[in-house]
Amino acid sequence: MTQGPTAPVPTRERLRADLCAVADLPYDGEAVDQLAHALQCGTLAVRAGARPAVVAAALLHDIGRSPGVSAQLPDAPHERAGAAYCTRLLGHEVGWLVGAHVLAKRALVTLDPGYAALLSPVSVRSLEQQGGPAASAELDRFLRHPLAREAMDVRRWDDEAKVPGAPTMALDELLDVAIAA
Ligand SMILES: [Fe+2]
């Protein structure tokens, strides 16, 4: 007997499964695991009053590290794999913001002398692999994008969301906001 096509997984369940797949996974050498980092980042976005697409990007900015997501673009860096996934499931705004979170870090290092001093040692090390401070042409191009300001907001929450044991909203509460994006 042949099997029919597999029913598509609803977006909410897909996001939940791919986020839960990073629970307990180390986040490079940071002090929190990847799920705690995602929940902290999403919670910071909600507390700042961000709109749903930005909360979704904060929650999902590293989803490209989740095994089922990275397997879809195995040769791409995690921000590109995450951008493709989020664009498909939640639309272009969320996808762009997720894809921009590394460039936003490089832009902030160039724009704000105090920002680099706040980066964790792990993030300082990865900065060089990511291309270092943004050069003026790519910085100009980035800043002209209408979502650049929100991408830098996501990036600052990303950098803050590394506190062991920090209280967060529940995953389902954050998914409620994200799927409204
Ligand atoms: Fe992150």
Characterization of the model:
The chain is an all-alpha fold and 181 residues long. The chain has one domain: Hypothetical protein af1432 (Orthogonal Bundle). Helices cover 63% and strands 0% of the residues. Helix 3 (52-60) crosses helix 6 (92-99). The protein is globular, with a radius of gyration of 16 Å. 41% of the residues are buried. Fe (ii) ion (FE2) is lined by residues 37, 61-62, 158.
Can you describe this structure in just a few lines?
InterPro entries: HD_domain (IPR006674), OP_Dioxygenase (IPR052567). The protein has one domain: Orthogonal Bundle (Hypothetical protein af1432). It is 63% helix and 0% strand.
CATH class annotation: Mainly Alpha
Q: What's the helix count?
A: 12
Main sheet overview: none
CATH superfamily: Hypothetical protein af1432
Organism: Pseudonocardia kunmingensis
InterPro entries: HD_domain, OP_Dioxygenase
GO molecular function, one term: hydrolase activity
Protein name: Putative HD phosphohydrolase
